[in-house]
Design goal:
heterodimer, A: alpha/beta, Rossmann fold, 2 domains, four-stranded parallel sheet, 41% helix, 17% strand, elongated, disordered N terminus, B: 337 residues, mainly alpha, ABC transporter involved in vitamin B12 uptake, BtuC, two-stranded antiparallel ribbon, globular
């Protein structure tokens, strides 16, 4: 009895110590952090770069330098990320980079912690650029800022850092506003002028790209032309096949009048199409969104997913590599208005990102809409 | 007792040997491994988990388990974020989050200690239930935009290059070590874990001890959740999802018996070092996440199999030696007769 009393005393003591430590530290924490990491945001052009061309001219990066670069997808095992790696490898060979191009990523379950870990370790390893398809939302911003401060350029592709903190430039696959219109147009084409109910099956609630596309689509839907399209719900399958499959079926149960599932993610659209096919619901509920032709071909030919859209992930990886190489070698500064040469894809310009107040982007584009006619190409 | 001590010593010896191998490989294969910065990062990337592993050691030695720790971490993070979003001062939000964690722990502890339900079932319910509350609070959103002092809480260097959370972990480890191995309470944790009935008949207030441990678990988990929210700078419903398995893994690999009554914090400390160093080394060598998970998994399988195999082998060898002695003796007796 006496001993347990001492135990409860100890517990209370422990709690008090913890609280004291937690509170005591707060005043101290304000001091060093009041000034945000100065290196997080691309420095203005005031820093003269010996190798960079004057503003307005197109920078063609000097090949043959020696820098290590990491291509970091959301997680491994997704076909489009492998395609992006193919493109990055092509650029890596073209530029004759004597360093390594490393393609590594976390598992799907460990995606957020794994991406943060890779980014944190990149600085330690002496890697000069990390090309990130962000799956951690703003949770990765602190790690990205720390990496930038340690001399690592963080170039995002596919999915940016929402606050743009810690990010040099984002390579946008397509114009995010255009994505909204393309999705709305596909919905209209499938449902016809009579319209009907449809729902969105997205990736994770924190995926900046999907969220921006959905927002853009909602904007487009307010136009009179799309008045009969009724968006009833947005659900998330977290880019996991099984979860997306179940979410698609749950949508059908929940909304008896549902006519279309729009999935702006390659995992979601394939899972939804499989779910509708398995349950024999294809006549009633169609599927559309952003998908990979190789995964969607049978559903498109069967009429389950009559239309879907995508861009080339290989090109995205290629363009991202050219930009990251230029930034990491100091030949590009990562400021608005800079133009650079991206090999076979031509010339691109760094511009303000209209979807994120503090972000910079390079816009790739364009979309290809796939139907039964061209899905086999 | 002596044999048990020797077994534990040898287990820790084995962990130390593997750790040395891993450290040597890392040093040779990844040049950046030894840098102070990397050594600090190595802890920082898992600091919240290893904090919770300390209390988990107490709980498992005591013959219980707490599966709800990761959900309490997530709930505490969500409480801080949601309150902050509502305009509550952040310090107050942190206190509320810590109290919420304490409450979750008391909830678990009550059912386990005073009602006598198995902790596996109670904390499994807690794991789902607390996560559910967190998701109700935050829905499908992600809350961030905390002030700078919070997003660097725990990470800013405090003493030389050592950040606050690392020092906090060090102090917690020392405190836990003293309580478990050099105090009456610590002895009670072992006694109850070894045989709760005997402890009860000897006049130990077993329910109170268990309640206290679950409360401590909830509180430390909440603290870890707040630190995680600070480190990530943004919170969502699945923050800290799945951490409980990593935490329990660290404790079991440290030689703590899942049946209670045996294990040391020294062993858990070594196992934490081993797992962190292994992961860090693989990460520096750009080993992908899939392979990393596989390697850690294999280590665990071996850690379960090896001691048991050794046990079986020793038994068999002893039996055979005894048989041989008997045969020898019978030959001798028959020869003499």
């Amino acid at each position: 009895m006496k001993v347990t009393n001492r135990f409860s005393l100890l517990t209370i003591g422990l709690i008090l110590v913890m609280l004291l430590v937690a509170c005591g530290s707060q005043p101290q924490t304000t001091a060093p952090t009041s000034a945000p990491a100065p290196t997080s945001v691309p420095a203005p052009t005031s820093a003269p770069a010996p190798t960079s061309a004057p503003t307005g001219a197109v920078v063609s990066a000097t090949p043959g330098l020696d820098i290590d670069m990491i291509l970091l997808p959301k997680f491994l095992g997704i076909a489009v990320f492998d395609q992006a790696y193919e493109g990055a490898k092509e650029a890596h060979a073209e530029l004759g980079n004597k360093g390594d191009l490393i393609f590594t990523g976390p598992t799907a379950e460990n995606s957020v912690a794994g991406q943060i870990e890779t980014l944190t370790n990149a600085a330690t390893q002496g890697v000069k650029a990390v090309m990130l398809s962000n799956n951690a939302g703003d949770q990765i911003a602190a790690a990205a800022q720390a990496a930038q401060a340690a001399g690592v350029k963080v170039v995002t592709w596919d999915s940016p850092i929402p606050s743009a903190q810690g990010e040099s430039v984002f390579v946008a696959q397509v114009d995010f506003t255009e994505t909204g219109r393309v999705m709305a147009d596909m919905a209209l084409a499938i449902l016809g002028p009579a319209g009907g109910e449809f729902a969105i099956l997205s990736a994770s609630p924190d995926a900046a790209n999907q969220n921006a596309w959905i927002a853009a689509m909602k904007q487009v839907l307010t136009e009179p032309k799309y008045a009969n399209l009724k968006l009833v719900d947005t659900v998330y399958g977290n880019d996991q096949s099984e979860e997306s499959y179940n979410q698609a079926l749950a949508l059908v149960d929940k909304y008896p009048n549902l006519k279309l599932i729009m999935a702006p993610t390659t995992v979601g659209i394939a899972a939804a199409a499989k779910a509708m096919t398995d349950e024999g619901l294809c006549d009633k509920v169609k599927v559309s969104g952003l998908g990979l032709p190789s995964e969607m071909v049978s559903y498109t030919l069967s009429g389950c997913a009559p239309q879907f859209a995508l861009w080339s992930f290989k090109d995205l990886g290629y363009l991202t590599y050219y930009l990251a190489y230029g930034l990491a070698t100091g030949q590009l500064q990562g400021v608005e208005g800079e133009r650079f040469n991206a090999g076979r894809m031509g010339t691109y310009t760094i511009e303000k990102d209209p979807t994120r107040p503090n972000g910079l982007r390079v816009l790739m584009g364009p979309f290809t809409v796939y139907t039964a006619e061209n899905v086999n190409e | 007792m002596n044999a048990k001590l020797r077994r534990l010593l040898s287990w820790e010896g084995l962990l130390l040997a593997i750790l040395l191998v891993v450290a040597t490989l890392n040093t040779n294969l990844a040049p950046a491994y030894l840098s102070l910065n990397n050594q600090i990062n190595l802890f920082q990337l898992s600091i919240e988990k290893i904090m919770v592993a300390l209390v988990m050691t107490f709980i498992i030695i005591n013959g219980e388990i707490d599966l709800s720790v990761a959900s309490i971490m997530g709930l505490a993070a969500c409480v801080v974020a949601v309150l902050f979003e509502q305009g509550v001062p952040l310090v107050a939000a942190i206190v509320v989050a810590l109290l919420a964690g304490l409450l979750c722990g008391a909830f678990n502890g009550f059912w386990v200690a005073y009602v006598g339900l198995p902790s596996l079932a109670v904390t499994l319910a807690g794991m789902i239930g607390f996560r559910g509350i967190a998701r109700i609070l935050i829905e499908d959103r992600s809350i961030g935009g905390f002030p700078a002092w919070f997003t660097t809480l725990g990470q800013q260097p405090l003493l030389g290059p050592f950040p606050f959370s690392l020092l906090l972990f060090g102090s917690l480890f020392a405190l836990a070590f003293v309580i478990l191995h050099y105090s009456g309470v610590g002895r009670l944790v072992y006694v109850v874990g070894h045989n709760a009935a005997v402890a009860r008949y000897s006049g130990v207030d077993v329910p109170r001890l268990k309640l206290g441990l679950f409360c401590a678990s909830g509180l430390i988990a909440a603290l870890a959740g707040v630190l995680l929210a600070a480190r990530l700078g943004a919170v969502r419903g699945n923050t800290a999802d799945g951490f409980e398995l990593d935490i329990i893994t660290m404790v079991l690999l440290g030689g703590v018996s899942i049946f209670g009554g045996a294990g040391t914090l020294g062993g858990v400390g070594l196992s934490i070092l081993l797992i962190l160093n292994l992961r860090n080394g693989m990460s520096l060598m750009n080993v992908t996440g899939n392979v990393q998970t596989g390697v850690v998994g294999m280590l665990l399988i071996l850690s379960v199999l090896l001691p048991n195999l050794a046990h079986v082998a020793r038994d068999r060898w002893q039996r055979r030696a005894m048989q041989r002695k008997e045969v020898q003796a019978s030959i001798e007796t028959s020869a003499s007769s």
